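Hi support team,

I submitted a single chain yesterday and got back a structure, but I'm not sure I'm reading the token output correctly. Could someone confirm the output below corresponds to the sequence I sent? I've pasted both exactly as they appear in my results page.

Thanks,
R.
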Amino acid sequence: MAPTAFFEPSDDGRLYPTRYSHSLWAPNTLHGPAVCGVAARRAEAEFGRNGFRPARFTIDLFKAARTDPTDTVGRVVRDGGRIRVVEVDVVQYRADSPEPVTVGRSTTVFVRESTNPPGERWERPAEYPTGPEVPADDLLSYFSRADDADPVWSHDMSPMQAPVRKRLWTAGVPIVTNEPLTPFVRTVIAAESTSLVGNWGSGGIGFINCDLTVVLARLPHDGRVIVETDSHVEFDGISTSTASLYDASGQFATGAVVGVNNAAAEIDFTVVDTRERYAEG
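Hi R., thanks for writing in. Yes, this is the structure output for that exact sequence:
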């Protein structure tokens, strides 16, 4: 079985999507974690600096990404003593376009690490959720109801299709074959599921996110991340959702997305089995 990853590298420098990157929304398209993750990978690898921590990642997903050869183009916007800002475009090479097509544009803010100012400030109470015990090579996502006192974790999504507050526990799939995820890229991939846990209701998921923002006070300390819905608001075909991200030490980041009505392609998880993408084939 080939290594699990969203993309395969090639000698031409482009990344070729694998089946693990394919979206459930439409045939021959890529899902959000793959697009967001490949942008975060470029931002960190090319523009990260010692002493600077990625504190915010934002990406606008303004065009559907296809299963075409993919690349990223980055540039520095600001290189200051305390703040470093970079942009990364996700571009694709399509047979029907003579020029590369930009499908997303991200901004990453790196902030210099220092010490906290004096005094005390309000923080969320220290209680936080923990995930189940599973093998280290288990890449399946697990779900539970966030308001249950004794949550039951399962990778079967159908019982979760209800108007309830949800949690997702995920390891994250590598962006590129044989390249381990960094804590930052793992966080971005996990945070994209803010849309899933926030917009998933009794009929499935009918809002599709057109962006992602994740803010990080620190990087995760281990390889698994819990994404827990904090809020969801919807009016006139527009939704906003936020989620808290936890590792085994507590909360470390917050995700936010804007969703737009995509009911014509609504995904019903009582009939779709997402586990198939991780089956040998």
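A quick pointer for reading it: The two ends are 7 Å apart (CA to CA). Let us know if anything else looks off.

Best,
Support desk
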